[in-house]
Design a protein that fits this description.
By secondary structure, this protein is of the alpha/beta class. The chain is built from 3 helices and 8 strands, in the order H-H-E-H-E-E-E-E-E-E-E. The termini are far apart.
Length: 137
């Protein structure tokens, strides 16, 4: 077991392993690109390490803690962090940007928010946005 620790450390230093600091940095970079400092909503489906990393970036809230209102299903200034992926120098953030309006009884709602997939590349220790894919409905 002791022999693997130096290998793991070397891989982390080389940038081949997703460490909590790298996840935090990637989440922070995504929020900067979104142009806001939102409450980060954390679904239970996220790995514990990702939830922990997000909590170092800004205020967080478990998904079941989001309080819907007559106006909003997801309030303004909330970002549902759905996925964080790091593979070497490539990183991806997937999420839903609020606001998402509430539906009214008997009224169809076509608005489901702004879904984003942000592709980053780590260059000289900094995550740089390469591409953003957005779906707005």
């Amino acid at each position: 077991m002791k022999a693997t620790a130096p290998i793991a450390m070397a891989l982390a230093i080389a940038g081949c392993v997703a460490t909590p600091d790298r996840e935090s940095d990637l989440i922070r970079a995504a929020l900067v690109e979104l142009g806001q400092s939102p409450v980060i909503v954390l679904p239970d489906s996220l790995p514990v390490s990702t939830r922990r990393a997000a909590s170092t970036v800004g205020p967080t809230l478990p998904e079941h803690g989001v309080v819907a209102s007559a106006q909003w299903r997801l309030p303004p200034n909330h970002f549902v962090l759905q996925r964080v992926e790091i593979s070497g120098v490539d990183g991806t953030i997937t999420g839903l940007v609020g606001p998402v309006p509430s539906s009214r009884p008997g009224v169809g709602l076509l608005a489901c928010g702004r879904h984003v997939v942000m592709l980053f590349k780590r260059e000289h220790g900094v995550w740089r946005l390469q591409q953003t894919q957005e779906t707005v409905c």
